[in-house]
Every structure is written in C-alpha cells, then in structure tokens.
Design brief:
Layout (H helix, E strand, L loop, with lengths): L1 H23 L10 E10 L4 E8 L4 H11 L4 H12 E4 L10 H10 L2 H15 L3 E7 L6 E7 L5 E2 L8 E11 L5 E8 L3 H13 L1 H12 E3 L7 H6 L2 H14 L3 E2 L2 E5 L6 E5 L7
Antiparallel strand pairs: 1-2, 2-3, 4-5, 6-10, 7-8, 8-9, 11-12
Length: 281
C-alpha cells in the first residue's frame, strides 16, 4: 500500500511538473520559420500602435490559380495585393478572422506601405518557389538583351528611419496661390501604400507624368485643409512638383533594395538595373 501511494505521489508530482512547463509556454512566443518583421510596420491609427511582426504561409496550387486570373488582366500591383491577402497569415495578433472577414483584411493589406509589401512578397516567393530571381535588362550602351539571376538573400534590406506615423512635413518652395489669392505651401505627405500602387500603376504605364500627379494627390495634404487636387498639382511650379517627388523618393529609400549591378556580356559595360521581386513562375 505504501509503495502504491508513493508511486501515485511520484506520478502526480511529475504530472504537475509537466503541467507547469506547458502552462509556462506562451503560444505567441513560439518562433516560426515563417515569421518576420516589416521594415516600417502597420500603423494602427485607432490605437496609435505600430505592429511590425507578421507571419506568412507557403503558396499552394489554389493561390497560383487565383493569381493567374489577375495576371491575365495584366494588373501587376493587384497581383501583389492578392498574394499578400491570401498568404499573409497574421499581422501582430490580427488575422482575417479576427478583423471580421476578407473585406476588412483586404483593406489592411492594401494599407501596408509599398516597401513593406515588397519585403513580405519577397519572403513568400522565397519559401514558395525559390530564392532566385530571374531578371531581364537591356544594355544602354549596345542594346544587348541580358538575362540575369539574383539570390533574394543577396539583396540588402535598408532599415526604416522615418516617423512612426509614416508621414513627413513638407514646405513647397513657391506654393500654390488659389483664386482668392491665398497661398498654400505647407502640409503632410505620407508613404504610398498597396492601394495607391494598384490605382496609380495602370495610369503611370501609359503616362508617367499623369501617374505622378495622381500619386501625389493621394499622398499629399495641405495643413490648412485646402484640397490637393490633380488640378492643383498641374498648376504648381515644376520646382514644387520636383520637391514633392524627391521627398517621396527619400521616404521610400528603405526596405529591399531592388537595384543591382548588371554587366553586359557583349560590350562589357556595367550599369544599374532594377529587378522585379514578384515572379511566382
């Protein structure tokens, strides 16, 4: 009887010990090979909270079919949003289910800034297809067509050094004078997001200047409430336009650096080229 009692006590002690270990494990702290951090992060305006951690999953045949339908319509930016919408498992504690369904989840995906989207899509490609990117270039010296291959791991990721709210103040060199003679010069410009890219890219492909105008109207706001319309962007001086364009470029100088050195095997010249990280082939 004493031996049985001692045995039961020992089992209970072991069980309690195991239970304590299990209880001490926080599922949210279990690391996954598919967990990463955005360079800038998703800014939750309602709670004033910056969320940087996210998790992805590997693409499936169903994902490939869904993306092929979008690719057939030649909508490059929409492919990115669609891929992220399907393959981003969570952002912080947010999931498609927790935010109320696919429509709300899609808005969150579209609101991610462009460099964060590009970083996430590169990780999805890396685990789903391969970490090698095929890219085509044309030599500016001799016109030779060049096909090159780059490893995703070889691409540098520049850290984000901007504001948490992902905006910058601007002060136009000249400013815009409205019909009442009021001068508007200062305001705020934000980082472009996935929805901006989806809307602007088709326009920019046919007319780059019109695409720039449309993008800046979406990104810029005068601090006095005067609307930054396409008409305003067309009427301001080129100096003011270039100022806003350059400021936007500076804000986007983080995340995966998609610029690479390309060597022409025909004439030997070396030039800067850019690669497309989205290629689920």
């Amino acid at each position: 009887m004493n031996e049985a009692k001692e045995f039961n006590e020992a089992v209970e002690e072991k069980t309690d010990g195991v239970k304590e270990v299990l209880d001490s494990i926080d599922d949210n702290n279990v690391e996954s090979d598919l967990e990463y951090e955005f360079p800038a992060g998703y800014y939750d305006k309602e709670n004033g909270k910056l969320i940087k951690d996210f998790e992805i999953r590997e693409m499936t045949g169903a994902d490939e079919e869904a993306l092929a339908g979008v690719a057939k319509k030649n909508k490059g930016a929409k492919i990115i949003n669609k891929a992220l919408e399907r393959c981003l498992v969570r952002i912080g504690n947010m999931t498609e289910k927790s935010v109320g369904g696919i429509d709300a989840w899609r808005k969150i995906i579209q609101s991610l800034c462009v460099p964060d989207q590009d970083f996430a899509i590169a990780q999805i490609q890396k685990v789903s297809v391969e970490d090698e990117i095929e890219s085509s270039h044309v030599c500016p010296e001799c016109g030779q067509k060049i096909k090159t291959f780059f490893k995703l791991d070889e691409l540098e990721v520049e850290p984000y050094r901007g504001e948490t709210e992902q905006v910058e103040l601007f002060e136009l060199p000249r400013g815009y004078k409205d019909k009442k003679g009021v001068l508007h010069k200062s305001g705020v410009i934000r980082l472009p997001n996935g929805l901006d890219r989806e809307i602007v890219l088709p326009v920019a492909k046919t007319n780059l200047s019109k695409g720039t105008t449309l993008m800046l109207t979406r990104l810029c706001t005068f601090d006095d409430g005067y609307p930054m319309t396409e008409s305003v962007l067309r009427e301001i001086s080129l100096k003011d336009r270039r100022y806003l364009e350059n400021l936007n470029k500076e804000m986007l100088s983080f995340g995966i650096d998609l610029s690479v050195d390309v060597e022409c095997n025909n004439c030997g010249s070396v030039f800067k080229g850019s690669i497309n990280s989205l290629s689920f082939q």
